[in-house]
Amino acid sequence: MKSTMMAFPLLAPSMLERAGKLFPRVEIMSSLPNGDRHRYTICDLLRRSRRLANALCDAGIRKGDRVGTLLWNGHEHLEAYFGIPAAGAVVHTLSVRQHPDELSYIMNQAEDRFLIVEDVLLDIWRQVNSRVKCERVFVVNRGSSLPEGTESYEEFLAQSVDNLVRSDIEEGDAAAICYTSGTTGRPKGVTYSHRALVLHSLASSMPDHFNISRHDVVLPVVPMYHVNAWGLPYSAILNGCKQVLPGRNLQPHNLLDLMQEERVTLVAGVPTIWIGILNALEKQPGRWNLSNKLRILIGGAAAPESMFRRFDKLGIHAIQAWGMTETSPVATVCSTKPGMETWPEEELYKLRARQGLPLPFVDLRAVGDEGSEVPWDGQTSGELQVRGPWISGSYFGNEQPDKWTEEGWFRTGDVVTIDSEGYVKITDRLKDLIKSGGEWISSVDLENALVGHAAVREAAVIAVPHPKWQERPLALVVLKENMTVEPGEVRSFLERTVAPWQVPDAFVFVPELPHTSTGKLLKGKLRQDYSQWKWDTEPSPVVS
Ligand code: AMP
Q1: Nearest Cα to Cα of residue 70 among 11, 121, 133, 20
Q2: Which domains does the chain possess?
Q3: Atom 5 of ligand 1 has which residue's CA nearest to it?
Q4: How far, in Å, is the centroid of ligand 1 from the Cα of 184?
Q5: What are the C-alpha distances in Å from 526 to residues 329, 431, 463, 507?
Q6: How far are the Cα atoms of 281, 436, 516 from residue 447, in angstroms, in the given order?
Q7: pLDDT digit string (tens) for 17-41?
Q8: Which of 27, 308, 362, 402 has the most CB atoms less than 10 A away?
Q9: 320 ligand 1 Cβ < 6 A
């Protein structure tokens, strides 16, 4: 028997339409590049997102077309999050950290027709402009003059109207796309359907997950160009929360001032952000008067036990979540089950440092070397595989289909154990990548670039623990016979093709590198050999 329920589509812009009716006066605050705080309401956001959608439709954007954004976390980005999908198009969030070669590849592969760029990021745009085929470029400019060939975002909106937009969008249509760095090869696009974004917003808001309510004030430090800022801009609108968007100044003092003055209750970021915040709070006890409802979401890289202990001492509750670009991203969140509160302190901290339990509808399993699922015993490890309504089923353009099993499980590349209660713990990584301050660096790309140098015979790049950035790349280089080269020269050579923050912080010249019997680099052994490496210079990578 068929149900008589309506086939009512789950659409991302519907979340804002509702919030605009029910919570019109709730504030959206954005930090501007000059330090000023811009304020408007959810009602303004709705009107301007509709204007953007109508303007895009009038400009000839068709269903499914991609519109790029090169923006920090701010209200214009939020307008793009809702306005572009309301036009039936796909918001393509572009990372401000990418090397121009990679950025132009991504924009061309996604076939971005239009771009919205912020004036303080125009230098990035200038470096890719001649290599991409954007038909129109709209600049969020705050007083500066517009570069030739670009148009004003504000004027684009002003020509338009704020009535309701198109009604032919289906929940399976793509609303957003974000690229993820691959272990090998080029970045790959992950498309998010309207349905996935809505379900992800609902599930991640639940009390045992991010526990979001309309009484919250949400600050996504995690960038809106990286996997939808963990979906927070959407889930905050779904719930009708005030949002505090930090712009480009992510220094601990600035973030703490925002948290204090805007009465933030939920803030999300990668461990590198929290290391800076903890240091500042511990150095100046009592300087910031934070909300007693404040919760901290940690993800993107492993949060050590010590981080939970330090936050607890300050009376701040920290929660770990795990996810990937391919999982929208939130797939597991770590919170206790009833009865666990009475566990010995040591056990409880061990639990909280795990990646947690899967959200409803997220299926997961760990698969061992022989290809079968390993037991949930907290001991046996295997590759984490996931599937569910907000887990990607393929990459845009069907790149790398082998990332999915025949039964449709996504191979995450993370090695985990799962305990008898279902808590996932990441123990290792199969993917040959380095995660520095929340952003990926491909060791394979660096190795390929290094062997392009005339003096280099072979190279291995490994992730080495770093006190501030969690991991930084270390290059082990074997030179050709009778060749010499200075580290500074290798560095400059790499800087020609690699973003400066991705260049290894140290180059160690070694006579040879260890290999497996089939000739593959023994990366595990190298990681172990150099695990105690002492960084003597302060690198300048990226914080997301
Ligand atoms: P991305 O697609 O850039 O968001 O990166 C996803 C990857 O980041 C995962 O596959 C993990 O390797 C890592 N990651 C994310 N969250 C965590 C976490 N809580 N603990 C450990 N690693 C994490």
Answers
A1: 121
A2: 433-529 (3.30.300.30)
A3: 324
A4: 17
A5: 31, 15, 10, 14
A6: 39, 17, 17
A7: 999 999 999 999 999 999 999 999 9
A8: 308
A9: yes
